[in-house]
Design a protein that fits this description.
With 173 residues, this protein is α+β, with helices and mostly antiparallel strands. It folds into two domains: 46 residues; 117 residues, no CATH class. Helices cover 46% and strands 13% of the residues. It contains six helices and four strands, in the order ααββαββααα. A two-stranded antiparallel ribbon has the order 1-2. The chain has a two-stranded antiparallel sheet with strand order 3-4. β1 and β2 form a beta hairpin. The longest helix has 30 residues. The protein is elongated, with a radius of gyration of 27 Å. 3% of the residues are buried.
């Protein structure tokens, strides 16, 4: 038997002799491997993988800044609707300037209404992100003008209806 085999047998014998030390060492290894795996998962998802959009290197987020606001200012404040419309009208450096706002809404159907997360988006946002519709059509710039009829994708898309009804039933379980 080689030197490595003898060292391995000696190590196993010592670990069996000192069970407290062995348990602590195994626990430390488990925590270290788990923490490393968790950190890598986050870094991989946030930094290493490209965003799931058509041209992620061309995406920019625009903020409003209020440096003279009390207590150090507001360096990254959301852009208001009038500011967005002014930027869209006055800037021509971008291929598209779009907006979104997330919030909640109540969804009603055959049973009790359910509170869901929803987003209001400007007309070309989904097209700019390179999103392809599964069924029906995307919201377009024609839907973005004042007085345009509201796009009702709930009624036009039976697949979406079924998925939402299924999700509502699952959330009740």
């Amino acid at each position: 038997m080689g030197t490595f085999g003898q060292d391995l047998i000696f190590a196993l014998r010592m670990m069996r002799k000192n069970l407290g030390f062995t348990a602590a060492a195994v626990l430390c290894l488990m925590l270290g491997i788990g923490a490393t795996t968790g950190i890598f998962t986050v870094v991989n998802a946030v930094l290493l993988r490209p965003l799931p959009y058509a041209h992620p290197e061309q995406l920019v987020r625009v903020y409003t800044e209020f440096p003279t606001f009390p207590n150090g200012g507001l360096p990254r404040f959301w852009t208001s609707a009038p500011e967005f419309f002014d930027l869209r009208r006055d800037t021509h450096s971008w291929a598209s300037l779009d907006a979104w706002q997330t919030g909640g809404t109540n969804l009603g159907g055959k049973s009790q209404p359910v509170r869901v997360t929803a987003a209001s988006v400007s007309g070309r946002l989904l097209e700019s992100l390179g999103v392809a519709p599964v069924s029906g059509r995307l919201i377009s710039a024609a839907d973005d003008v004042p007085g345009a009829p509201l796009a009702s994708f709930w009624r036009e898309t039976p697949i979406l209806q079924k998925k939402i009804e299924w999700a509502i039933e699952i959330s009740r379980i």
